[in-house]
Amino acid sequence: MKKTLLVGLIVGLLVVVVGLWWREQSVSAETPASTLITALSAEADEGYARATEPNNIEFPRDFGAHDDYQTEWWYYTGNLETEDARQFGFQFTIFRRALAPPDPISDIPNPKSDWQTNQIYFAHFTISDIDNEEFYYSDLYSRGAAGLAGAQAEPYRVWIEDWGVTQNGDIITIDAATDDYALTLDLTQTLPPVLHGDGGLSPKSEEPGNASYYYSQVQQLADGTIRLGDETFVVTGKAWKDHEYSTSVLGEGATGWDWLSLQFDDGTALMLFEIRQADGSVEPYSSGSFINADGTVQSLNVTDWDLTVDERWTSPASGATYPVAWSLELPGIDLSIRGGALMDNQELNFANSVYWEGAVQFDGTRESRPTTARGYMEMTGYAEEQ
Amino acid sequence: MNPTVSTFPLYRTAWRRIRRRPFQYVLFIIGVALGVAMMVSIDLANGSASRAFALSADTVTGKTTHRIIGGPNGLDESVYVALRNELGYKLSAPVVEGYVGSPELGSQPVRLLGVDPFAEPPFRSYLGGEQGAIGTDLGAFLVEPNSVLLSAEFAAANDLALNDTLTIDFAGQTTPARIIGLIETTDALTERGLSNLIFMDIGSAQQVLDQVGTLSHIDLIVEDDAVLAQISAILPANANIETAAARGNAIQQMTAAFELNLTAMSLLALVVGMFLIYNTVTFSVVQRRPMFGILRCVGVTGGQLATLILAEAAVLGLIGSLLGLGLGVILGQGMVGLVTQTINDLYFVVNVQSVTVPAFTLVKGLVIGVAAALFASLLPAIDGMRTPPNATLRRSTLESKITTLQPWLIAGGIALGVMGALFLWIDLGGLILAFAGIFAILFAAALLTPPTTVVLMRILTPIGNRLLGVLGRMAPRDIIRSLSRTSIAIAALMIAVSVIIGLSIMVGSFRQTVEIWLEQTLRADIYLSPPTTTNASDNGFVSQEVMEAALAWPGVERGVSARSIDIFAPDLAQSIDAFAVSDDVSNGNRPIFWSDGDDATLWDRVLAGEGVIISEPFMVRHSISLPPAPLTLQTPSGPREFPVLAVLYDYTSERGVVWLGKELFSAEWGDDRISDLALFVEPGTDIDAIVTAMQTEFADMQALTITSNEGLRAGSLEVFDRTFAITSALRLLATVVAFIGVLSALMSLQLERARELGVLRATGMTLSQLWRLTFLETGLMGSTAGILAMPVGFILAWILIYVINLRSFGWTLQMYLEPGYFVQAFLIAVVAALLAAIYPSLRLGKTVIASAIRSE
Description:
The complex is a heterodimer. By secondary structure, chain A is mainly beta. Chain A has helices at 2-25, 382-385, and strands at 71-81, 87-98, 119-129, 134-143, 149-152, 157-160, 163-168, 171-177, 181-188, 194-195, 201-203, 211-228, 231-246, 254-264, 269-277, 287-291, 297-301, 306-314, 321-330, 335-341, 347-349, 354-366, 369-380. Chain A is globular. Chain B is an alpha+beta fold. Among the domains of chain B are: 1-59 and 247-394, no CATH class; 72-237, no CATH class; 531-703, no CATH class. In chain B, 60% of the residues lie in helices and 14% in strands. In chain B, strand 17 (631-635) and strand 18 form a beta hairpin. Chain B is elongated and about 100 Å long. The two termini of chain B are 32 Å apart. At the A-B interface, helix 1 and strand 4 of A face helix 2, helix 3, helix 4, helix 7 and helix 11 of B.
């Protein structure tokens, strides 16, 4: 009897010990979770200001940030080349996104932390090495607080940490660097800012308020350096700046847009965008601007032009198919050009957003004279369509 | 011998014996089991606590390699902006952290980590990145003030769900905080690492933790020394870079002495267990001597017999160890709470969610248990092997042997004692040698037990004869006659009891010392401080408004303010705890360990900024020799040397503290805030009335703890008692081990005498005489052990107080002896011994005399 009791006790204890040990050791497999930035999409847009008034833009005040609008961006693109004609393109954009409308009644205690904010800033920075068909892109995120990121009108400065655009007298300097590549570019204005749409109010759909305030600074002279790995190139060229702020831009049914900016060798410039609809049509509120060499603007309606796709390219990374060659007819200003991407792969493939933004070149005739233009094309929504 | 002859019959004889007399073997198993259980449970408790610490440290540290830390007021946040904007160093993350309380999360302090989610992904994966769990509500995390994230398990353990609101209490300021996300962890390690953490956006955290404008530290991932140099170059004078590993190590090293102490205690238990095993094995050999003699006569070799004895011990040791493991795991679960409590009170906040049972601990316990059983059986086995067949038939040889051994035992005892004293005397800085010294002295005492017992019994024989007649003479003689067994039982009991005495004196003296010190030091009448959630130093401030009101209070004579600060000491490569005081709160009563000269002007000179004072533990911890070299502290304008004017006895902190004058601190660090205020009232004022009135008056201004001198002292002693709960638990365990051990040893001793007593009964001894004889014998043994344990216990206490404690913690304690400790221990020995007599007496009383002597 005693023996069985003892044996039973020992076996029981052994089971307990082994069981406890086993429980401690068991580790289940990991499951991936969502990413940081999925959080940034699909917020409600109530409580923000909306773009509704023409002739509402004033300088230098509106060079800075407009925190009461949900979305804002300072968009720099440009086509550069070295002395021996090696071509590059660059895009440097700083986006601002409000996570919540400005709160007039704040219960934030005193003293207030500098880090408290509703604003986040992020940047996309690309270099297109045309000759080698290499495309470099990266992004950077920060809160718009504590001096880490922000935008101010006077002196003009938009920055995220050590990336930014800074005014220094008459010169605007773009600075951005990653471990692999870097850009330092001095820009010189040649024309005053250009207001798009109706005195800077650029509607995107029929619904009032589905619009942005939108101006550009075109035909800016650029000179600086591009570093790729250990190699540094001295470059010159032309840059284009867009500054746009809005709340809820796209109307229902919009799936993406194609945006084109061109700077012609005769000092003129052209911007146009087409908003694509789910049914395959183009939003009638799509519009554009033709900027004369003296800086005067001619507004364009989507019916004024005919943009047709000549060639498409499918991204091996995202699987999205983008147009990469086009023909553009603009009878109103007697423009007929054909062209396309200087290299196919200029797709920014981030975890939270995928789009094509790249250097393009167009050739053709304007008022019967041969003309050539370089610029940038942006195409969004293609990755979601497939 | 023919190799084909089976030894199986030999083992069958052993098995048959076990079946016939299981009781002794059960005692053997219990002896091993108790020793192993004690060791395993301490091991588990220690291991779980340090593992929990390491895990939460890893969770918090993440992939951090280095850290930028600041001065006493934290690190200016502009350092981070410069690091990002000027240097563009992306592998950097700002952190604001502190301990907060939350009733919804239980009573334990919780670590609040304020982070910038944009900077986090390279460091900690819980916020965004590949493994992020923040999911849908990053916006709320940033935008909604005081929104928090915590692990799903942590929330579930506290019955909290998404969108529930916590009340976060920091230094008396409460803030509601909504849970806006639950971090889903899928592996158990991460789960435990996150079990005491809540995440908040850095902006809210700065406000909640009263750190607006500053950071606790900046985490860095740096692989390259050149990069480190670049970062160093842009840091202001009061910021420093330290490695993440160094910090973790420093914190873990703090508890090393404490853990080693506990481990040594558990080894002590095993030693007691070993005595019990030795006792049991010796019995089983002695009892079987006639059979072994017969076996030797029929051709069994001595080697075979030794193998048999050892095999028996191994099997029983294994069973005992397995039982011990099970018991140890169960005990460990209870013990971990006590260990954690001590660590929380003395060192840092650690939250142990579960007791980890590493395979290594189990294997170690098993191996040590079996090895101890084998080791204890070695002597009897050798004895069984060496004894010639004819001699094994007589027991008297064994007893005569121990008699001849006596001089050797005395010599060995003295030699071991001297060795132990030497070990204790040599101070190599470590504790291992000191513990080796303790064990040597204990063994010495054990070796000296048989000769001392003989002397005592010889003295008692005539006394017993006079008082109790023939029984009084017989009992001490019986003990001498069976010395080989009785002395072991007495030694085992003596050691167990002496451990109890030693621990009692040590803890009692400690408490008494602290009590007297509190009385000397806390001379002010009323104390004001922000409520603390932990014992961590920087925990909020007494506002200027409150201070002015308190000093102007009718009846208040004057006030003494203190500011507790963390200051980086470059030479020591770590932060130290310091107090900037406006005066000496003890009115010059603090006991001085060493001073550079004039004690009377000491505090005046400190307050005038001539130098600083350090505490005794600070001196010991940093191996500072007397007279102390100037102490280098990091000030905002760079490192500065401060002369050390004195060393004070102090029991505030095991890490040690530094005192400096308030004026000096304000001038050097540009900071006037105070963290505590002590008030002296005019004689004859009703202190409690003022405390009550102040509590009402100041309630609207600031959450404060306002206590009278008496209340603060009581509170301090409460913490003390909580800290020593683990020691009390160990003492209780040692008592239980001793009790059961003695019970089993004496019981088997008496059972073994069945035949002898049978003969006595046959020759006319009455039942009541038998009872008396048995009780007398065990009582004598218990008392002998109890009496011997007194000097040994005293020596042990002396070593614990003046060697171990001083070396582990740097606290000089005054030894206070209370008769109660000795009386209690003596009673334990005697009561255990007397209880041990009951069962054998009952059995012998029932036994038919004829059957008792039949084996003749």
